[in-house]
Amino acid sequence: MFDPVDLSGRKLLVTGATGQVAEPVVAALAGGAQLTAVARFARQEDRDRLTALGAECVSVDLADPEGLVGLAQDFDYVLNFAVAKTGSFDHDLAANAEAAGRLMLHCREARAFLHFSSTAVYQYAGHQPLAEDAALGDNHRAMFPTYSISKIAAETVVRFTARQLSLPTTIARLSVPYGNNGGWPWYHLLMMREGVPIDVHPEAPNYYNLLHVDDYVEKIPRLLAAASSEATVVNFGGSQRTSIEEWCGWLSELTGLEPRFRENPEAFGSLCIDHQRMHALIGPTRVDWREGIRAMVETLAPALLVR
Question: pTM for this structure?
Fold first, then answer.
């Protein structure tokens, strides 16, 4: 297992900084590092919020070939969370794949580049835990038609550029991030509250690996340490496997609300991961998914808890 890199005082670049996954990273790291947060910042309140956390905010449209002009280049580490899923292949391939290559060229002197991908790159394989060499496919087509393909394209560009530049790189394939700022279980709770059916794939149970924000923030320095010029590819999810059915059942225990499941063959099916490489590189995660979900409800909807 790799020892974590020390980010104290280092110059960090975080892209997609206003996103649900990235913003807690900005909050955790901005106090101890020189952190530059990049996003479009269409809303002033987003810029104000990240500035208050201690980040320097820079407006950048990564889909624009000239978008990086004027941005500093002397970053020690780059964390690329940026993602576009507009439904337009032209835009999303440019914003996800081409932009990643331009970003790496711009920051070619970095000590390491960390690119956040997704387990949505995998072909559906039922309940089989998927290792990093599993077949790739257009997994999320039914809901996000460009997402899986543009994520696969981005990984290809990132691997190629890492090798060409000898830029140490890690590609982390995120499972299901969640925490006190929301995530998929939170949306399910809102659906339960409103009596909205939750679509599930007929091949139940639908397994995933919930990744709590505390765990992914803690693992980032180890993911950076694992970077290589061949581009280290690693699954990145919680060490516990659970299912939509299980976490909705737990939400029901916590709140008394009942989930209404509706079988839909177009719904996302199981996407559970093989942990072997992840545990070898960065170690297991720590947050129990039940405690993580309880904390989420306590933070976001305490009135819903059964007393």
Answer: 0.96
